[in-house]
Fold:
Amino acid sequence: MKISIEQIETNGLRCPNTVISFKNKPTGPVINLLQMPNGTGKTTIIELLQGALTGDAINWSPTKIKSYARKTEGDLAVEGLFKLTISIERNDKHIQIVVFQIDFDFHHGKVDFFTTPNKGAGMEDGWSPPKDLRQYITKSCVEVFVFKGDKVNDIISPEKEDAEVTIKAFFGIDSIEGFVGIVKDNFRNRVSQTTVNDRNVKSEKALLKRWTDRYILLKEKYEEFSKDLVNFEKKEKDLKDNWGDVINKQKGANDKQIEIESNIEETKNQLSKHSSLVFEQLKNPFSISNNLISGLVIMKDSLDRMKLPGASRTFFDELIAEDNGCICGRELDNKSIQKIEENIDSYLSNNEINIINDIKRGITEANDDASIVDGLKGLFDELNILHESHEDALNAKSVFDQNAKRNADKDGSDIFDKLTEITEKMVRARAAKRNLSKNSSLSDDDLKRPEKCYSYIIAEKAQDKFIEKIGGMSDMLKDVQANQILQKVITTAKDKALIHLKDHLKKLTNQKLKETLSDGSQIEVLEIDKFVQLGWNNIKQSEGSGAQNIIVAYSFARSVLEEASIEFPLIVDHPVAQVDTANRESLGATLASMMHQFIGFLIDTERPGFLEGVNSGGDVHYISLFSDIKGNAAFIDSIKKINNDETYITDNGYLCYNKDFFIENSMGVGNV
Amino acid sequence: MFKLDKNAVKWGSALIDKNGPMTIEFDLYYIFLIVGFGLKRSQPVQNGSIFTKNYPKAYESSRHKIAALLLYTDLKASGFEVNNKANVKSAISETLSSSSYNFISDDAIERLNGYANGGYHAIKDVLPSAPPNANIFLNIINDEFLPELFNF
Structure:
């Protein structure tokens, strides 16, 4: 199934009233590049697109709805419209056109949502896409192919769980988890409602109640911190942007900041790579000390002198089992067999001898390798140096920030303080989340003290233990066992499916990386778990270069979609903002191979290098959109020279599909 | 069953990070273990938290080496000579188990847990609270502990 974005229509919203048509072809990819001056509503369009496709707009709050209203000379629009038209091509090549429409009532903060599930058919109330598409356009699924904000980094960030969330959503694993939760809850309710008059059962039930209350409390806390964290992240992003603006105003500060931050990233990467290398080497305990090796060599001499009795134990085992009498011809009576069995344990089995031989081999290898201990020492020395370099880079950043704060005006200085505050809050929220979801075993003592438990995962385990116990004490033992088996079967199947999917997606992503990255690019996916772990030759690294990170994120998204046998457009806000100019060209050239339809929202600072790259890479559709305001006078003058067929003028904006206009008129940050 | 004292798990929780060199609890256990071995320091685990039954995959190739260190340290800690064939043979029968994936018996794993706990206490004596991340922790282990290990 291939889904393409055909058209977006907007009216009365925080972006110009317009109808934007995107290109796609029956075969081969098309790159759609849309440029808009800053403040024209790029983010609005992407949010509305997500809200329409997922149907999420139906649940938007009145404040959020009102935030999309167009403001003209201080007055808010009364109503608005957003219409998204998509095409769905199935295997039989039949193309279905589906339209999602959001009608805004800004006055009351309400929306009416409509779907036209087939071109020519009437509009239906609510969100009703074709059934076979529904599972792929949930909120989590759409986030796979719509890249905005820090999405690229979120996939590779250990602080986020974006990779796993994506896989679970796309392949229905989260539905299975939801089902297990329902089974558990129902059974817990049943057990807690049993009426058994035994005093012991009563006391266990009272404890179960305390554990259930504890679980609910801790889970609520966890959800609260998760919600806080999402808000903090949003605020942090805005504050970072604002702080960036403050820095931009200080002469030379922007370049200095870029230099310092790239130095931090570089030293952090080197440190992270190297510490993994050190730890890998440390996993060979024989590399710790020469003294240890000398001692082990002496022990090995004793092992050598023991003349390990080869297959003796096997010989005696077989002698008894075959029952053909002794090797000397005598019959083996019960007394002889008993005697052999008593002594047989004093002989080493073949397997034990294999272990001893492995030990001896390990000692010999360590003794023969003259550099094993010095090698580890050298790696540690280098770790120390890298650690100091990273500390220096962090200190430089701290000095820079303090200077920039001193040179800023009061508002700028406040932004910095707020940013520092929000960063600290994020650290605390993450730590709280980690503690609230820790997993460890429970002792009998622990089970008696629910109030001493601070993890909802452990509290849930405790509840399960009590349910099992109470079930055993009442007449529900069989039900408890059946319930446990049911849960285990579903959970095991789900876990195995998830492991298999992650492993398979790792291979697919790596295949795509090989196809897309230039030869010699030392980056691959080492593991997909909660996030995509990058590295090279089994040595982990926290991230790649800006371009590598983007290609990893796109390749992962493509792999997920491919595995689900579905094609979506790749929709990206700022496709190369984090990529240096030198690498933009090659990334631009590879975009065409990524998806059948690419829609990139580009700003002026991203153009150098990137435009040359996309031009050489494929069929590019250039779109410029801007408002009819004084600040855009230069663009308005320029657009008047363009062929009318490629220009669309509305009551408050201009839309242009002309390539030369796009190339000659750079829009974005410079047009705030 | 590999066990760590609950306080040890709490102490080192910030060191385990999916994106750092130490990604699983066994990594922490392993550092404690080599320090416990190297200082011949063993302490029974009172309030243990079981975190794995078998060696994780990343330690599969170290199983026989850890078994060797247990043999070696046990012999040294008991005051027996490692060049005495009878001592070594008796230590082998108390330690190795061919039927276990871990190469050592359940009793031997309990002794291993004791050394790991001893290592934890030795580290905690120097660092009452854990460093903020595993990079710094590894540097401290190198500076403060590695030169002192296996000097017997």
Observations:
- The radius of gyration of chain B is 15 Å.
- Chain B touches chain A through 58 residues (CB under 8 Å).
- Helices of chain B lie at 6-12, 25-38, 63-77, 85-95, 106-126, 134-145.
